[in-house]
Amino acid sequence: MTAPLRLGTRGSTLAMAQSGQIAEAFTAATGRPVELVEVVTAGDRSSAPVHRLGVGVFVSALRDALTAGTIDFAVHSYKDLPTAVANGLHIAAVPARLDPRDALVARGGRTLAELPPGATVGTGALRRIAQLHALGLQLDVTPIRGNIDTRLARVLGPDADLDAVVLARAGLARIGRADAITETLDPMLMLPAPAQGALAVECRVDDQDLVELLAVLDHAPSRAAVTAERAFLATLEAGCSAPVAAYAELAEGDDGDEIYLRGAVISPDGTRDLRLSRTGTPADAAEIGKALAAELLDLGADSILGHEGHTGPGTQQFGSTE
């Protein structure tokens, strides 16, 4: 009997759920058995706010295990991956992406517009904090940590201390908690993180047999969208915790499929908000992302991100009517 392939995963409810789903899909498609191997990461051991932990804090231990050969492949939330290429490793598949939008879970079934001034809203992402401030709703936004159930308990539990939390819709869906959502936030209000809702299935580049097997899980439209978004992020030289947002959609154009990419850089206090959009073909996904980032840098995005360079304009939006 063929030995099971070892799939490395974090031990959180979400990570185990998405890794289990990938394992089932892989076995169904290839007939190869898979066993889950829990790997503890530095991010799991820390209680610090996500934006202070550094890029790749949730993936480095998994990649170390891959390199050491103690696991055969790993499943990551793609938005957690550093944009730099990892030597000796390969993203063998980007499965079909779930809805990348953010979601609000609020007491009393409220929507974002129904929250009163001073309402307390928790989220773990600087990108979300910045965009909530930019909306000018006079909300009391606070950074929070913890797994999905812990965050939901701060709104829905007996000891709730927040009026609402904002999380990724895909994460709630993957663990069967989409029923808790009181509003799925329109990207016009809250642009998602680059690669939000997407998974990355990674293995060693020299394991060609496994590279070929994992390709059965790849979803070309999702890979193209994520490629555009992450090229945008990489060109800005920003990490996964920076106040950078991007959302690429594929649609049928006059001459075939087109990518429509929206990108934004927002100051943490929401007072500066630069937004642009760009279109192109899926084959040019990376170039679309790079070009959009370059346009935002010309407008002063690097000063918002804390880079040396331009002194950009104040609270303005450019480009598309978002």
Question: Which key phrases capture this entry?
Answer:
disordered C terminus; five-stranded mixed beta sheet; 11 helices; 23% strand; 322 residues; alpha/beta; D-Maltodextrin-Binding Protein, domain 2; 31% helix; 13 strands; 3 domains; Double Stranded RNA Binding Domain; single chain
Distance between the termini: 56 Å
CATH T-level fold name of the largest domain: D-Maltodextrin-Binding Protein, domain 2
Please trace the helix and strand order, writing H or E for each element. Answer: EHEHHHEEEEHEHEHEEHHEEEHH
Compute the number of strand runs.
13
Structural class: alpha/beta
> In total, how many domains does the architecture comprise?
3
CATH architecture of the largest domain: 3-Layer(aba) Sandwich
Helix content: 25-40%
What proportion of the residues form beta strands (DSSP E)?
15-25%
Outline:
This protein has 322 residues and is an alpha/beta fold. 31% of the residues lie in helices and 23% in strands.
Model description:
The protein is 31% helix and 23% strand. The chain contains eleven helices and 13 strands. The strands form three sheets. It has a five-stranded mixed β-sheet with strand order 2-1-3-10-4, sandwiched between helices. A five-stranded mixed β-sheet has the order 7-6-8-5-9, with helices on both faces. A three-stranded antiparallel β-sheet has the order 11-12-13. The longest helix has 18 residues. The C terminus is likely disordered.
